Amino acid sequence: MSSSREAYHHGRLAQALEDAAMQLLERKPAAEISLREVARAADVSHNAPYHHFTDRRGLLKALAERSMGELLAGVRDAVDGARADGGPVEALLAGGSAYIRFAVEHPNAFTAVYDPTVCIPGAPTETMAPLIDELEAILGATAAEAGLGSENEALALWGLMHGLGTLCAAGHFPTDAAQAAFTAGATRMLPS
Amino acid sequence: MSSSREAYHHGRLAQALEDAAMQLLERKPAAEISLREVARAADVSHNAPYHHFTDRRGLLKALAERSMGELLAGVRDAVDGARADGGPVEALLAGGSAYIRFAVEHPNAFTAVYDPTVCIPGAPTETMAPLIDELEAILGATAAEAGLGSENEALALWGLMHGLGTLCAAGHFPTDAAQAAFTAGATRMLPS
DNA sequence: GATCCAATCTTGACAGTGTCCATTTATGTG
DNA sequence: CACATAAATGGACACTGTCAAGATTGGATC
Question: Which chain B residues have a beta carbon less than 8 Å from that of A182?
Answer without folding.
Answer: 156, 159
